[in-house]
Amino acid sequence: MNAIEVTGVTKKYSEITALDRLSLAIESGSTFGLLGTNGAGKSTLFKLLVGHIRPDDGTVSVAGTDVATAGPELRSIVGYLPEHAGFPPSLTGREVLEFHARMHSLPDAASRIDAVLSVVGLSDAADRCVGGYSNGMTRRLGLAAALLSRPRILLLDEPTAGLDPRGVADFHRVIERLDAQSDLTVVISSHVLTEIESLCERIAILHGGQLCTVGDIDGLRREVTDDVRVRLRLGDAASADSIQTIVSAFDASVHSTDHDGDVVFVDCDPEDVPQLLTELTEAVTIDGYDVREPGLERVFEQVLSEAEQDSQPRQNAESSEQLRTVSHDE
Prior knowledge:
One of its GO terms (molecular function) is ATP hydrolysis activity. The protein has helices at residues 42-49, 74-77, 93-103, 109-119, 135-147, 165-179, 193-199, 217-224, 240-248, 273-283, 296-329, and strands at residues 2-13, 16-27, 31-35, 57-62, 65-66, 78-81, 153-157, 185-189, 202-207, 210-216, 228-234, 253-257, 263-268, 286-292. It is α/β, with parallel strands linked by helices. Helix 3 crosses helix 4 (109-119). The chain starts with a strand and ends with a helix.
C-alpha cells in the first residue's frame, strides 16, 4: 500500500512552474529520500502534502485521503517539520508542546507530550526555556511537535540544517528509532547526500519540477557504474601528479583530490584494485587507503547531468517558438 500518491500534479506561481506533471508514489512504512537542487520543487511538494497549497492540476493523496477535500483530519495524518521551525524563547519545551496539543485538540495531551519528549530525548530539558536550547535540541523539539498527533506520515524538510556533527548524530538516532515503527512513513528532503544514504532505502530526484528518477539506492548505484572508488591517503602531496599515468593504464580515472592535495580518489573496476594498489605503492608513498562502493553523489551528479541535457532541447524549442510568435505578431 502506498502512503503517498501524487498523480500528474502541476503547480505554478505566476509564470514559474514549481511542479510539472509530477507523479510519485511512496510506500507505507518506508523511509524515503527526496533530492534535488534549489528550486527543484521539493518544498512545494511538501506544502501540497500538508494541505498548505492546492495543485493547479492533478491529485495528491496521503494515507488514502485526497488532500484537496481533506479537513482538519489531515493534521493527524501528516506531521511536518519545516526547515525553519522557531519557538518563543520564553516558553519551556513542554509549554510549546502543550500549545500544539491545544491547537490540534488532541486527547490525552499530557501523556502524548511525555511520550514524544522521551522519543526525541528531551525529557530532562522539558521544563527549561527554549531560548536556552541548542540548535539540535530546537530541531528535536520541532520533531516532537510533529509527532504529537501520532501521524502516519512524517515530512522532514532539511532536518539537520545548521547542526553540528553531534547534533546531526543525535537527530539521526531519533529517526532510526522512528524507522523501527513499521507503520510510520518518513520522507526526508535534504541536500546532505550522506544523510539520505544512511537513513533511506529509496529516493526520488527532482529537477525543474519534474521527476528524474526514483528507486532504491543500491539499484540506482548499479545503474550508474560498476566501478568502486579507491580513496588514497598520500604521504607526499606531490605524489598526486605521479598517479595519473599509472591510473590511465587501468582504464581508471582520478576523480578528485582534497584541498591539501594529500587525498586522491580513483574510480576503477573492482577486479583491478589489487594490481592498481601494488603499482601505486611501488611508485608513490601511500599512508593508507580504503575501497568504497559508488556513493549517492555519483548517482545524483549523473541524473542531474542527464536531466539538464534533456531540458536544453526543450528550452531551445520553446525559445524558437517564442521568436516565431513574435515575428508573426510583428
